[in-house]
Amino acid sequence: MPQGQPLQVPDDGLSTKARRNAPLFAVHTGDGKGKSTAAFGMALRAWNAGLRVAVFQFVKSAKWKVGEEAVFHRLAALHDEHGVGAPVEWHKMGSGWSWSRKPGTEADHAAAAADGWAEVARRLAAQQHDFYVLDEFTYPLGWGWVEVAEVVEVLTARPGKQHVVITGRRAPQPLMDAADLVTEMTKVKHPMDAGRKGQKGIEW
């Protein structure tokens, strides 16, 4: 794709502007590091462009401190106080979604994941946000907690211009088939292979 030009332009009657403004569905998968980091980088661009951002973390505990979360909370405050950027919401499944606190036992996780997806689907139908990050969402899909076919149907039929990025290993094939952009992170080398530990500012 030299100089940002597509290799081919489909004969679909759409204008250049329409193609430029088409909603994007992206999947970041693979065993390598950087899937969520890349999604949050895209969310940062979206915020700067004035797009309403919502992050849903489907696996990480509510107690797990994520550096990007603190940054986006500050960006949300910056928007509220000075009108720059756009609104930001950040929700973790962990011990219960922010709108519906539930016990965090193992038996509740499947129900919590389904509850989280139902809320995402509701917000998509209402066009509540412009940019969604469904972080580590491939795991509830792989565990059968949320139906892949339903997710594909909702995402492909979402109204308006809503961008969605899903992260996590082993993304189901139907999800990748439906996506506009699929990136597979491949590990070539990792410091933990040599016994090093995760570091503040690098892993979180």
TrEMBL record:
<keyword id="KW-0808">Transferase</keyword>
<dbReference type="InterPro" id="IPR003724">
    <property type="entry name" value="CblAdoTrfase_CobA"/>
</dbReference>
<protein>
    <submittedName>
        <fullName>Cob(I)yrinic acid a,c-diamide adenosyltransferase</fullName>
        <ecNumber>2.5.1.17</ecNumber>
    </submittedName>
</protein>
<dbReference type="GO" id="GO:0008817">
    <property type="term" value="F:corrinoid adenosyltransferase activity"/>
</dbReference>
<dbReference type="Pfam" id="PF02572">
    <property type="entry name" value="CobA_CobO_BtuR"/>
</dbReference>
<dbReference type="InterPro" id="IPR027417">
    <property type="entry name" value="P-loop_NTPase"/>
</dbReference>
